[in-house]
Amino acid sequence: MTYKICLLPGDGIGPEVIDCAEQVLSALPLDFEFTRADIGFGAYERLGTPLPDSTLEQIRLSSATLLGAVTTPPNLAGYFSPIVRMRQSLDLYANLRPCKSIPHESSKENIDIIIVRENTEGLYSGIERVEDDGNKAITERVITRKGSERIIRKAFDLAKQTNRKSVHVVHKANVLRQTCGLFRTVALEVAKEYPEITMIEMLVDTCAMELVRVPEQFEIIVTTNLFGDILSDEACMFVGGLGVAASGNIGVHTSVFEPVHGSAPPLVGTGKANPIAMFLATALMLDYLHEKESAEQLHNAVQDCISKKESTPDLGGSLTTGQVTKRVIQRINS
Ligand code: NAI
Ligand code: MG
Description:
By secondary structure, the chain is an alpha/beta fold. The chain has eleven helices and twelve strands. It has two domains: about 1-105 and about 245-334, Isopropylmalate Dehydrogenase; about 120-240, 3-Layer(aba) Sandwich (Rossmann fold), CATH 3.40.50. The protein has helices at about 15-25, 40-45, 55-60, 80-90, 145-160, 180-190, 205-215, 225-235, 275-290, 290-305, 320-334, and strands at about 1-10, 30-35, 65-70, 95-100, 110-120, 130, 135-140, 165-170, 200-205, 220-225, 245-250, 255-260. The longest helix has 17 residues, at about 145-160. The structure holds 1,4-dihydronicotinamide adenine dinucleotide and magnesium ion (MG). 1,4-dihydronicotinamide adenine dinucleotide (NAI) binds near residues 266 and 314.
């Protein structure tokens, strides 16, 4: 079987780490057909939009997609976040962010959390307006039963599949009584269908604190869009940071995998961009394609490089982006 993989290089270090991912995939004993499509600020400058329709079409036609990173200029009138728009247009409703200890001194031990973030609604619904001559800005927070139910179900299903015993449902229903109230009500209903898994409710501010205090207590966290965005960036710092944090945007028809980091403009062309976050995103993609063996092979190769300090400077090593890629490929081939 040949997998059609859509590569979205994007901006900054995105194209560098996407090239690394292509090399690593090509070293695996699987057949891939790669296509590239435009996204990001560079696309906007060339084509007048950061997310051309042809890119969405290409993603739809592919078995899975890898995204590098994009640059999002603040305060550019008419500009929109192509990643948020892509997630909404393709209904990539679940953002999965594994946070697992790595064999490195910057990582805490015994952490193995999956953060399951709702990816299409909440405060990122894109409904904003300005009133009072620009002196009042309003963003609407949309929470639906459908959106809540499918993300909560995803979290409980993941708990079941991965033999986890608990799901933390994180909200702020004491203040956001309508939106978080609905999310909470739906969670209590869905949890009844999974008697073997304990649902633990936690307010989002408490969760932010508990994550710092005792991160080992969490197995799965499910929450709304903005809360999940913040908590997952917080959690990744216990397990090596942005250079190794990966995520999957999972939809019903297709899915897009990406490193958590942004376009890191100061690192462009320096060879200091850590490609490992991209490789772990690639391993998540292989897992999604049911290529468990290759996913594990890539995962193990990466872990071995990290533990032997064969890494970029952010993880204390002295190798370049390209050299780390070569070391990972050597391990895959051996
Ligand atoms: P950033 O993630 O690009 O960089 C944050 C810090 O992490 C910097 O110190 C950077 O050098 C370091 N870093 C990032 N990736 C790294 C890697 N692979 N290896 C080693 N170090 C790495 O976030 P920042 O600086 O806030 O944003 C830069 C641009 O990226 C902005 O335009 C922002 O909008 C965009 N962005 C895009 C994201 C995406 O494409 N998913 C996510 C976050 C930001
Ligand atoms: Mg984020």
